[in-house]
Amino acid sequence: MFQPRPLQSDQIRVLVNAIHSKSGGGVTYLRNVLPLLAKDEDFELHLYLHKDQLELFGVIEEGVQVHVLDFSNGFLATLLWEQCVLPIRARRMSIDVTLSPANYGPLLAPRTIIMLRNSLAVAKRETRLFKRLYWMGLTLMTILSLIKCERAIAVSTYARKVLTFGMEKKLKLKVPVVY
Predict the structure, then answer these.
(1) Buried-most residue among 13, 77, 136, 177 (CB within 10 A)?
(2) Is the Cα torsion angle 134, 132, 117, 22 positive or negative in sign?
(3) Which residues does residue 151 pair with via DSSP β-bridges, in sequence order?
(4) Do the Cβ atoms of 136 and 123 come closer than 8 Å?
(5) Structural contact between residues 45 and 33, judged by C-beta atoms closer than 8 angstroms
(6) What per-residue confidence (pLDDT) applies to 5?
(7) CA 114 to CA 128: how far, in whole Å?
(8) CA dihedral in degrees (115, 72, 70, 21; nearest 10)?
């Protein structure tokens, strides 16, 4: 069981919430950014992975404490775990910053940073009811996360424009574009 650090530590305790990174951009991003963050002595890194994701990430950089999670792995179960359990665990661990490299993250976790990267335009073309509900849920969670997060980072100017839902100018300082 993880023991929280003493409060006098100068390191910034970062929880990387990777439970949405199951293929493509999220996995690639984390494979590239985790080694860089692990080298920074200002950070104490904790990586949350579902047990089904272990093969995707292979060997994790030294300096990253991996927390392997075991919960039902579906959209709704993941959403509930992330919104209910993750914030409690993060607070028990005295997490300073929660990084979620996805359009949405835990609404009640400490100082959440999300990454706006996946277009939601697909929702308009979807005809299947279940998939339409999925995209509506994803859109709602993106909006709520954008409102609640400390910061959001966008992977492109286009992503910032479409995923700030017409509030790009208002949110320009909260949502910088990073490459």
Answers:
(1) 13
(2) positive
(3) 113
(4) yes
(5) no
(6) 54
(7) 28
(8) -20
**Which H or E element spans position 14?**
strand 12-17
Torsion of CA 33, 39, 43, 46, to 10 degrees: 60
Q: Which residue has the tokens 């709704």?
A: 76
Instruction: Return the structure tokens found at 58.
Output: 């292979």
Q: Sign (positive/negative) of CA torsion 63, 67, 73, 76?
A: negative
Token pair of 139, please?
Answer: 């859109």
Integer Cα distance of 178 and 155 in angstroms: 6
95 φ/ψ angles, rounded to the nearest 5 degrees: -65, 135
The single-letter code of the amino acid at 109 is A
Bridge partners of residue 68, in order along the sequence: 49
Q: What number is the average pLDDT over the span 98-121? A: 92
- For the chain, domain boundaries: 12-163
User: Residue 115 in 3-state DSSP?
Assistant: strand
CATH topology of domain 12-163: Rossmann fold (3.40.50)
Token pair recorded at residue 114: 């999300």
Q: Mean per-residue pLDDT for 96-110?
A: 96
Q: 143-156 pLDDT, tens per residue? A: 999 999 999 999 99
At residue 164, what is the residue type? T
pTM to 2 decimal places: 0.88
pLDDT at 4: 55
Alpha carbon 27 to its chain's center: 12
